[in-house]
Amino acid sequence: MKALRYAAIMSMLCLCCGVAMPAVAATTDAAPKAKAAGTQVEIRNFAFAPNTMTVAVGTRVVWTNRDEEPHVVTSAGKQFASSPALDTSDTYAVTFTRPGTYAYYCSIHPMMVGTIIVQ
């Protein structure tokens, strides 16, 4: 909605000033937000939530640390690069381009485990 309001305001300003408005200002990012909603993994209370997720090939999964302690997202089979140490509110993202099962854990707290299933 903010993008649409911004585009409307910019259109009015451009009409008043006689300036051409770039086409990009009229686009909205509502579709990517809707897709991203199911691709979030929260790190909370020393656990990944959800701890198992099934996604389509090409999906970007984002981990967000909600704990006060740092965590490192590490692929169990070195199938993707490990995150740096994530402090509170830090994020890390991986785009999964091939089907498969990707097990991961926190290398600081190895009892924290999760799985991404890519179909």
Topology:
Blueprint: H1 2-17, H2 30-36, E1 40-43, E2 48-49, E3 52-55, E4 59-65, E5 73-75, E6 91-96, E7 100-106, E8 113-118
Parallel strand pairs: 1-4, 3-8
Antiparallel strand pairs: 1-2, 4-6, 5-7, 7-8
The percent range for strand residues is 25-35%
- Provide the spatial order of strands within the biggest beta sheet: 2-1-4-6
What's the overall average pLDDT, rounded?
78
Tertiary shape: globular
Low-confidence parts: 1-37
Total DSSP E strands: 8
Taking Cα atoms only, what radius of gyration do you get, to the nearest Å? 19 Å
Give the end-to-end Cα distance, rounded to a whole number of Å: 32 Å
Give the helix/strand class: alpha/beta
Q: What characterizes the major β-sheet? A: 4 strands, mixed
Query: Helix segment count?
Result: 2
What percentage of residues falls in helices of 4 or more residues? 10-25%
SSE arrangement, N to C: HHEEEEEEEE
